[in-house]
Fold Nuclear pore complex protein Nup154.
Amino acid sequence: MQLECLELAGCTLDRYINADNSRPSFLELTGISAKGSPTCSGLNAGDYRNLAALLNHPNLSQLKIINKVPLPPEIMDHFAHMQCHCLTGAFPEISRVWLAIDSNIYVWAFEHGSDVAYYDGLSETIISVGLVKPKSGVFQSFVKYLLVLTTTIDIVVLGVTFSSNKQDGSAEFEEIHLVPEPVFVLPTDGVSLLCVKSTSKGRIFMGGKDGCLYEITYQAQLGWFGKHCKKINHSTSTLSFLVPSFLNAALYDEDSIVKIEVDNTRHILYTLSGKGCIEVFDLGSDGESLTKVVRLSQGKIVSYAMDIAKTLEPIVFKPVIAISAVEETESNYLNLVAVTQSGARLYFSTGSGDGERPQYLTLMHVRMPPGFTPTNSVLKPKQVQSAVYDNGTLVMVCSSGGGDEADSLWCLSRVLPGAGFIEAHTMLAIDGAACALTALPPVHAAHLSPALLAKREVWSSSRWAVVSAWGAALLSAGAAPDLLRALLRDCRGPEAQPVKEMFQLHGADQACACALYLACEDSGGDTSVNEWAARAFLLYGAQPAPAPHFPQNSQAPSSVGSPKFVPRQVSTPMAPRPQDQLRQGQMNQSYQGHMNQTVMQNQSFMPSFQQSPTQFSQASFNVSQTRDNFPTQEFSAKHNGLYIYVGRILYPIWNLKCVTKSMTPDDKEFMSSKVTGEDCAYIAKKLQRVAAFVQRLMAPPHSDEQASLHALKLFITMSIEMLSLWKVLCEHQFHVIAASLPPEQQSALQAASFRELLVGGQEVASLLLGSLVAGYLRDNASVDGISQKLRQLCPTLYRQEDATCSKANELLIFAKQQKNPAEREEMLQQALKLCKDVAPNVNLPLVCSKLVAAGFYSGVVELCVACASKLDPQDAAVYYYKSDQPSQDREGHLMYYRRMEIYREVCLALERLYERSSDANGSTTQPDAHHTLSPADANYQGRQLVWDCLCRDDELLHVAIYEWLVSKNLGSELLSLSGAPPASLRTYLSAMARQAPAPASLLLLDLLWKVLEKAGDPLVAAHVLEGLATKPGTGATLAQRISWVSAGVVCVRGAGVRAAGGAELLRRLEEAAEVARVQAAVRAALRAAPVPPPHHLLQRLDDELLDITQLYEEYADRYNLWECKLAIVQCSGHNDALLVENIWSNILADAEAAARPLPCADERLASVLSKLNTMGREYVNTGHCFPLYFIVRQLEIMSCKLQAEKSMVFRTILNIGVSLEQVLDIYIKLVSVNERVWLGCGDESHVCAAAALLLEAARAELSPLPPTPRRRALARCKDLHEATLSALQSRPNTQELIDKLTVAQAHLDRLD
């Protein structure tokens, strides 16, 4: 259930995170992707909206002054002595403001105005100032930054260090120190350097008044400071040093570089000249080289802009007064934003998307400022002095145009929802003239890793610093939560109309997410906004809002480089631009499926049966294969807002790999965490606040929303614990802990993302926790401290039972090594007791493997039974099993599955004993206890283990044992056990026989009737046998069916016919036995036929027991099987004399035909009589199936024709069991009829001669008879004598025969 909830929450978060990532791209907002060519915006009335008017709240402003800090008093004193020049600016990296007055520079913290540092070691006026993060390994570690100062003569580089007396080490509270001794000093060669800019790689670039780009290169030297540094001019050839500087100045038109911008994500450098020219330099894919790409003049920029916005005047596009680099984290296809003096924005691309290097500089979009709409209802910005673009927000310093009047700030940002390029505009007046405008990094940027900062928060408010002559002002351009906060404060609650309109404007779900953001933020003591936001969340979040939906295979917007759009050829002196055109990356991140799974835990620590039944591999992160098919449901806005907010908290790490591979100096690979412990703590703290808030939420009971919220609550709890654990791992040499994992598990960890870790990473956590604690044990250190800490941070992942399991594992290891049997047994029992105490929260596979290795097989059974009983105290699994496993009983199914997983360990122990007992070689390749057993001992131990299991009152354990035995074809072993078979065996065999396919069900039912017979229930066994014999299509052979019917008859007779239903069952079985015997005869006859019938007809005789009619019509009659016909007539009781006589005539004819090859008549007749003898013994007592008179007549006719010995027929008849009296009657009739047939056969007196021989033979037959039957027989002999004499009187040449009759009768008379 826990895994299902985590996966449900993970899949839902996938949808909301993907929906966030599916917001319209810049190309879509501006219409470039649809049109396929550069576009223009800002000319329509709806392009700019006023927040105050939109939300009907006059005091609402996106741009807000957070803090004002005046110039420190010591600096104000210096102003009175200023001689000629003053410069000011900000260092956002260290939260400092700087002020250069003549040759002195002051640096102080702009957030509180303290910590003033200064440097007065220069003699010339300072022209430009820059702060540089130095290259690693060049200076001592305490030199954090370099301060670059340029004058008309020198370039001076100072070291910047920090010292702190604060415990938290926060950068804004550290004390700054400027090292008085310069790091190095370089001459300017007469060129004034007007701007300084550094890259993230520590490179230092400067813009010269001569229009050239310079770089100061430096490298590490022995000692603290090195002198090996030099200045390079990147705008001239390598031989330019041969030309004097005054000649260079004369040869080139001077256009000074006033601004340098660097894109550290793509390693591109841009420069802006005083005349509005923009130049692009490629720093290489590693940021260590430099190549000039293109230079675009002001005239060309204006020309390109006019081509796009044809209705505007050229004056609005010049001069370009500011440029801002757009990093790759914000846009894949936008590279540079330039701002003109009128406030127009020019969006450029260099073609560096998809990892390619910059190739050109082309204008993609023109955005006009407010005031250029046809209605002209909005004021235009005037005289833009400076502008900075940062993450979609533009802030401009605009002059009022008159003397010393105060400047104003304009803020344009996409804070409003909508599909188009719609911006909110805000104007804010400031005190005095602004000297510098700088964008500040996010509040937490100093503490978070680049991996977390790479993906900026959706709601991160932009922070800006404005420096003027009176001091510094810290401003914020608020995002949607900041606007909602202002409305709640001004309106004193969520019920006001502006708040309601805010929810309507942004949509209920997005606005609920904003409210949740405010409800969970750290208010610093004033909780009123938190409470108001919580009330707004609950008030406006009850309305239904559909979950986000977007195409699963979302198509990216049309590429800018489509055939419709060909960027114009850029300016020289570049080589011809390649035909490659701008390409756009995919807008949506495609979902990556995962893989779930069997239990395998190979650490001695922590895994339990409450965790995932998964193996720690890439598939062990339990990621569903069908997340894209997650159904779209309608939930409330508060549900959606909650998922949106949690998704945005986790978005920076959601698809981030957990670890990264690095190399040591000696080229050894190791794993390190992708995020830091501070990153984990930062995210976990946010989730903790959400978790506290979620406890207040209610949902309709038994609804999908309640299930979803419950899943999210569980997911948040597990995420907090997982991140807290990850933080502890980062604090304990993560690379050492990760290296202790087996290689395949290390590979799985390297491939896993944090999404997989948070959703299904409990196994990973168990293994890593095991490595962590094992490290303490290896170092002989106490684990009490770390255990207490882990219990506080992740109580679900690290339970109290874990220590007990570790102790038990230790005892098992020692027991295996113990030589004293008594002590060994005591250790094993103690370990077993510890494991049973914490069951089922025990690493069962590991413990059972240890018990088997120690030869403690009964302990395996005891532990598994204990785990099962504690896991399922209500026996829901047994109820589920006995109810034929209904699909709707999900709880029972889950319990059944988990208990069978437990019993699998017993089966594994049996498997190892079985393998050992089957090992004829007796090899001992492993030092385990079962390998020291002989095959005979292993067989005995296996039988004992089976008996031990079957003696337990645990039916599901019995089932597991039965399944294992049946899988090994050892079911018959259950019959050899002493005592009656368990009742559970009957239930199991019955249930499995119903479910199993035909071949397997036969084996199970065959075992079942034997079990029933042994259990003393033969009547039920007979019913099973009847089903086995009569059920068609099971694959049983006819011989098996006959044996089952016979066994059924025996079982019924053994139970007694008087048993309930016994007589009827016996009748059915006996009839089935007779039919089966006939069917066997048909089958045998068909197989012996000269031309066998089709195979399917023969196969049918095996597949089912046919009825008598089918056997007769489809087989016996169709193929002239006369003997089978006779058997069928006899079996069915059908009385048709003509049919029977016809069958016998054909039988005898076939026999006669078969005897024809014999040489003499007697042999031929003897062959026919042999057939009669065989069949006669079977049918002699059946009456209607043995027409005696007809058979004897046919045989005598055959004898007459063959002229064979005349006594052979009646002697054969007597031999098959026909009484003498019956034979005499037959011959009396034959003689009396006096048919002409005998004359046609060649001997008219043949029957009379046979009668005479019969009378002679009768003397021997009469002697042993009792008196009464003998008198009757003598009387019949006299009748035959008389009938024969009467027949002979009219025939010639019969005297000899008459004499024989007289002699024979005389002998018989003496017997009377």
Q: What stands out?
A: The CA atoms of residues 1017 and 1055 lie 8 Å apart. The two ends are 102 Å apart (CA to CA). The longest strand covers residues 154-163. The mean pLDDT is 81.
